User: Fold these one by one.
Assistant:
Number 1:
Amino acid sequence: AQRVTQPEKLLSVFKGAPVELKCNYSYSGSPELFWYVQYSRQRLQLLLRHISRESIKGFTADLNKGETSFHLKKPFAQEEDSAMYYCALRTTGGYQKVTFGIGTKLQVIP
Amino acid sequence: DSGVTQTPKHLITATGQRVTLRCSPRSGDLSVYWYQQSLDQGLQFLIQYYNGEERAKGNILERFSAQQFPDLHSELNLSSLELGDSALYFCASSVGRQVGANVLTFGAGSRLTVL
């Protein structure tokens, strides 16, 4: 069965510091990976997905199949980045299922 | 507005009772997902429906059941409620099963409090 691990429940960084939110996964097939974000009093929403290879709000994430990781990075944290971040894996082939990690709360200190 | 509508927003009930949570997916989306979010366990996948049929099952208790109706709305039924069932229940929808077409759009959630 697939599994998504986010080892940090809380990550505190100073404004302007680099950010790295860790995500590791286990899945026997070829996964589709996502990062979702939930800002205070807002709905959970997609931030980015690995197949798009995009940078959203300065965040990037690279799928490393060798290390089974999909870490989310941003070179300079902003206060508005404070939110809950969830890594998600979608299985491929057959009936797909989306599994989320436990989430990491990012707190950017002014 | 994301297009996924969940009702009720808040619900307070007693142990042993039964409640029904309702979800209307975004227009055009065929898949509906239910998740439970609690403080210590993050987002737990419960169940997924695609065009009226159950597609995947996660950590859903036997006391819980769900269905997706012909108009694609879905209901999550929670019975014999326990204190531990207090949580935020999210519904999400997506277009379908194709690779790249499964970005989830979430509703605002239904907060259930069991006293």
Note: The mean pLDDT of chain A is 91.
Number 2:
Amino acid sequence: DAGVIQSPRHEVTEMGQEVTLRCKPISGHNSLFWYRQTMMRGLELLIYFNNNVPIDDSGMPEDRFSAKMPNASFSTLKIQPSEPRDSAVYFCASSLRDRTYEQYFGPGTRLTVT
Amino acid sequence: AQKVTQAQTEISVVEKEDVTLDCVYETRDTTYYLFWYKQPPSGELVFLIRRNSFDEQNEISGRYSWNFQKSTSSFNFTITASQVVDSAVYFCALSEAGFQKLVFGTGTRLLVSP
């Protein structure tokens, strides 16, 4: 079975540009999470969805960040405009909400903003 | 508030040595879940184990074992007869019941040399 799929795997962009990260959760999972990993802050949750509905976006850094989940098999995380401090690895994870809270992570997108 | 502490930043061992990674957690809830994830040099996050707060039995999976002690709020991870392939960053994480958010520790980097 396919795991969580993220694209692109690497993204290099210039400050001020819009960046869109994509995620396809594991089929049948009904919860989706976006995390960010940096050296300074470690792994931190940005936002998560249950059944395509955003539940907790308190980790979203600021209004430049937005996330959507238009259907059960696709989610996007958008940064507009991007800044150098957004450089990080962004992970998407999915889980079955009514099970055991085990989250399965995608390979991550390494974002570099110059 | 939830908190996970991994005091060991980096551990270096020689192949075949046993090694224990420490994890101490804080939570006010009586129902919670504890996790270990592995992040190899390739960067993905691999789920290793989940333990709920009502199950204090230790678990063994091959060379891996986990010791959960509520009395000391610890969930330690031991690798027996370490191998070079065990080299990775290992994260301990906590989730309170009813909240799907994973709170991660800062990770322990394990280096296993031949």
Note: The CA atoms of residues 15 and 53 of chain A lie 30 Å apart.
